Amino acid sequence: MSNWDRNKKILLDLVKEPGNDRCADCGAPDPDWASCSLGIFVCLDCSGPHRSLPAASRIKSIRLDFWDDELVEFMKANGNANARAFYERSVPSFYYRPQQWDSAYVLPAKITVNNYVPGPPPGAYQGILWKKGKDKGQFQKRKFVLSDVDFTLKYFNKEDTKGPKAVIFIKTLNAIFQPEKIGHPHGLQITFLEEGRTRNLFVYHESGQEIVNWFNAIRATRLAYLKTAFPTASDSELIPWITRNYTKEGYMEKTGPMQREAFRKRWFVLDSQERKLLYFKTQLDAVELGAVFIGPEDMGYSVTERQPRGTRGNKWKFGMMVETPERQFIFMCEQEREQKEWLEAIGHVISKPMLPQDYATEANLRRKR
């Protein structure tokens, strides 16, 4: 066996080991690339940002490139678990770790060659963000101020304005990266409750590092609030509740309660953690049109394939019915694949037992009707 083949076999065996079998940065399975200067295995998407760093991480293919003995020994001595323990040793618990679906725009702000860049510490954080207007839809510069003293996020129409345009309480705030929806690689969606209804703010910053800083500052302040609200809970118990990604989003057609009204196209968001199916007129609307609580099967909730009868206006042909104790909701999907994805996603929520806070969510939705 040649030296090339021997070293290639060693690397292919190494990448199958637990910890190495997923990308060190985003967790994608079966990485084919490695940083031979950091000793980590990464996926193709994450290999690009490594190359673009000011002091570039040296990236090689574990299948196609030549590896000398010294580099192979370095990879054997390190690996993803050891590298993570070293490079992420100072990363605070609230810091967001990139996932497979968002690494392309979050990763460059995460890494330096010798250290992972932590977000700002808990406390006051402020700066200028581009915010989408509620009605006209244009993005304008606004000053934002985040505080862990009164647990609020405020924004101002002008930098020198004394009073804020809005005060958002951290208690119900969520933040999620939304580059495709917003149309900017550094886009962030901020969601919160106002008078029982879900509100959205869509913002971005020209700097990827700055928008990641804002995201981590929000997470830090959320964690500080949760520690105040639940003083006996550990960080590991609170971390999943800091911010959340939505399970599924997309357009469906919806009819009214009598199922004879004309179908209308709406943007739907499934928030599994809150057990809510929200709908908006468009994907960039500021305020929800309505919400459906998704309870468990033993409380009378179900989701099934369903083709409507006697309705009008529906252009899409793949239907489903969400049944609640109060009524039946008929939704139409454009493609069968989307129908199956919605059925699976909603069905997963229905299969979960109710948590104590879910009863409060259900009661709030009932009062809002």
Automatic annotation (TrEMBL):
Q: Which Gene3D superfamilies match?
A: Arf GTPase activating protein (1.10.220.150), Pleckstrin-homology domain (PH domain)/Phosphotyrosine-binding domain (PTB) (2.30.29.30)
Arf-GAP domain: which residues? 8-117
Q: Whose protein is this, by species?
A: Scleropages formosus (Asian bonytongue)
| Coiled-coil blocks | none
Provide any one GO MF term from the record: phosphatidylinositol-3,4,5-trisphosphate binding
Which terms are listed as keywords in the entry? Cytoplasm, GTPase activation, Metal-binding, Repeat, Zinc, Zinc-finger
A Pfam family this chain is assigned to: PH
A GO BP term here is: heart development
Name any GO cellular component annotation: cytoplasm
Q: Which domain of life is it from?
A: Eukaryota
Q: What is this protein called?
A: ArfGAP with dual PH domains 2
